[in-house]
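Q: How would the structure tokens look for this protein?
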Amino acid sequence: MDDHAEVLQSLADPTRLRLLNVLMQAGEICGCELVQALRLPQYGVSRHLQKLVGAGLVQARRQGKWIYYRITGSLKLYQRALLRAVAQLGTERKDFGEDLERASRRLKLRRAGVCCVGLAAPGGRRPRTPKRGRPGPDRKLT
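A: Here is the predicted structure in token form.
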């Protein structure tokens, strides 16, 4: 596919616009932090991020078990112009502001600037998983 067409096609999805908006404001952010900010399933967020990485708009780096994403530093002039246009959508889209608010709350949970929570439950706590053989909140003893 033509590189220009791939970049434009990557912008043709509301979820990817939301991801770009958070990435432009937050700088570098972990994938699990993006999941919580957008309130979408992890697999969907990862799939959309890979599309943005493939288009050259986003870079990914692994640190331990986390993958951090950020806007590519060496964007072409037309790519920068497109991202400025995406940023201006924030005045028209309520979801952009809501995503940024959730991202801001999530980023405050970092320790030494590093994501350490993983996929957190509401309130910033990691969901508890029952031990094998013991009933969880949804299971009964048989």
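Residues 37 and 102 are 5 Å apart (CA to CA).

Residues 120-130 have pLDDT under 50 and may be disordered.

Upvote if useful.
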